[in-house]
Amino acid sequence: MSSDRTLVTVSAGLSVPSSTRLLADRLTEATVEALETAGHTVTVKAIELRGHAHAIVDAMLTGFPTGDLSAALDTLYAADGAIAVTPLFTTTYSGLFKSFVDILDKDALRGLPVLLGATGGTARHSLALDYSLRPLFTYLHADVLPMAVFAATDDWAGAGDQVNPLPARITRAGADLAARIAAREPATPADPFGSTPSFADLLARGGHSA
């Protein structure tokens, strides 16, 4: 049965253009293609952390995200699936990426299918996906996909792993995420007034008496 799905991408690239954003876009395209092939319509929303850097620091200091950052968080929390991609520095995720994760509601990603990706200079840094990035989202109780995608500099030129080249890894990861999203009940945003009694309920309880 077809349905609408919302896919959110979070990328923490620092430069413009960014290989991190490029990887996020390629993973998004593969996921959307797989979902549309299965008969679903997809809405894609991108969160580029570079544009929220100052607001993320402010939220860490005050404990309250505001403005566009608050809206971005609400978008992520209401998603049916997410792609999170970070550059690797000194063998781990970037400080900007970690700061964003630190301001997330600790229960908001529970059960959310998440595909992880990372970029770095050489393939030897790819293990950071499993010993650094994966535990971060496991702690948040996200449904982290077994497959993650690392892109080294040589991968973009087609000079990387010829047995398992980057385009093939992207296609497979996108298909895996699409399957997780399709198997899940579509996200329904919480009604902020859902627990408020109606006027009719108040009258039935005698709320009309003086």
UniProtKB/TrEMBL annotation:
Keywords: Flavoprotein, FMN, Oxidoreductase. The keyword Flavoprotein applies. InterPro entries: CE1759_FMN_reduct (IPR023932), Flavoprotein-like_sf (IPR029039), FMN_Rdtase-like_dom (IPR005025), NAD(P)H-dep_FMN_reductase (IPR051814). It holds the Pfam family FMN_red. This is NADPH-dependent FMN reductase. Residues 8-155 form the NADPH-dependent FMN reductase-like domain. GO terms for molecular function: oxidoreductase activity.
